[in-house]
Request: fold
Amino acid sequence: TTGMIYSNLIAWFIMVGAAVVFFREGLVLETTRDAALTLRPLAGEFAFALFALGILAAGFLAIPVLASATAYLVSEVAGWQEGLNQEVSHARRFYLVLFLALIVGVFINIIGINPVKALVYTQILNGLLMPILIGLLLWTANQKKIMGEYANGFWSNFWGFSTLGLLVVLDIVVVWGWMK
Reply:
């Protein structure tokens, strides 16, 4: 709980700080260079070095996490032996998916996909799919056969369906805005 609160608090401050900087400067991020330039008022001539260090640190964290999460997901769905604690000979398909996920990440970089645009489009897709995922989660959480005594109660359903309704409305607003 402490970790979740702390990480969400940090994320909130990052979003508010970025919004203030972008709004004040009238910036539109098109490239990672643009993002590095937003640090110039804070870091001066060290802005690019600071940004590069941040991207490098994020990459060292994100690359193994995303690749292994993909391998775990595919292996779990397919019913394959999985786990980083397994020897390669016991979980070949798991390690193959892990390797392929790393290769796809390198390939995306090599072919020149703009990382800023990729982040924007993936977040749009995430927002559009979120009501479906929350709906499935609520359906599962209300199945006594699956959840037993831990099935959702009134307040869990109230907040869950309220969130689902809000997300559906927001998705409709976004799609409506695109259609204009």
Observations:
- The two ends are 42 Å apart (CA to CA).
- The mean pLDDT is 88.
